[in-house]
Specification:
Number of strands: 0
Number of helices: 10
Radius of gyration: 19 Å
Strand content: under 5%
Structural class: mainly alpha
Largest sheet: none
Oligomer: single chain
Shape: globular
Order of helices and strands: HHHHHHHHHH
Length: 260
């Protein structure tokens, strides 16, 4: 029943954002809800589990820092802007019953995916870790370091791109400085690193359930690299000559020195 309670809280949250999105006529606002949805699952599972273990508190704090930062960034960037082309194209394809389909295909489905991605955090909070020893202390340390490296990379990517876009002189240009000099998608690389850090924290509980902590980083990395992240953006810029020059010398995902 604990899992059901946590999911119902998450579903209520996404349903609230669905209502906001219909008022704003912008289904893209679901992107703002994503990070906060993970935070809500983390905090609610910590409270419902009531174990307040060291690993549980650490993983909840780090998740909250990540989720609040991401959602605040997307809120400032997207809340009063027009709907992202991906969601507009969905409406065009649906043609009828758009509001019903918007709820079930976007917000309801996002609540399920969000819950699945949050499972390592939820399981960590619902199942206390074994006695701390050198092995799980080492895993905790490595997990925190990996998380922080990913977080710093993502923040640098987001805010350098934001400043770049605000400068009118850069209109139609491709961001190629800061961390974007070493990866064409540094924000996605940072996001992947964050979830590998969270996965390692979940594994540090040293029980079979903790191994499920690797599920989220595997799914997140796969989606970013192969499905909804990099492929969509690469396709969007395939006819941009400036991007093709940038592409020829810059790593697609892992940060590497640019080619000469």
């Amino acid at each position: 029943m604990e899992f059901l309670y946590i999911y119902l809280i998450s579903l209520a949250f996404f349903t609230l954002w669905y209502i906001v999105a219909q008022v704003k006529n912008n289904n893209g606002l679901v992107d703002i809800a994503w990070g906060l949805g993970i935070v809500i699952s983390a905090i609610s599972s910590l409270i419902i589990g009531a174990h307040y273990s060291v690993i549980g508190i650490i993983i909840t704090i780090l998740t909250t820092i990540w989720g609040l930062r991401l959602s605040m960034y997307l809120f400032v960037r997207n809340f009063n802007k027009k709907e992202d082309y991906r969601y507009t194209n969905m409406k065009i394809r649906w043609k009828t019953s758009i509001k019903v389909k918007s709820y079930f295909y976007i917000f309801f489905m996002q609540s399920i995916i969000n819950f699945v991605i949050a499972l390592p955090i939820i399981l960590t909070n619902l199942n206390p870790e074994s006695t701390l020893n050198i092995i799980n202390i080492s895993l905790i340390s490595v997990g925190i370091v990996v998380f922080l490296l990913g977080f710093i990379f993502e923040v640098l990517a987001d805010h350098s791109l934001q400043r770049f876009k605000k400068d009118p002189k850069n209109k139609g240009q491709i961001m190629q400085s800061n961390v974007w000099k070493y990866s064409r998608h540094p924000n996605y690389f940072g996001e992947s690193m964050i979830w590998w850090g969270i996965g390692l924290l979940a594994v540090s509980t040293l029980n079979l359930i903790g191994l499920l902590g690797l599920l989220s980083p595997i799914i997140i990395t796969f989606l970013l690299v192969k499905v909804s992240g990099i492929p969509l953006l690469e396709k969007r810029y395939k006819d941009d000559p400036n991007y093709q020059v940038y592409k020829s010398k810059t790593s697609i995902f892992f940060p590497l020195p640019p080619k000469k």
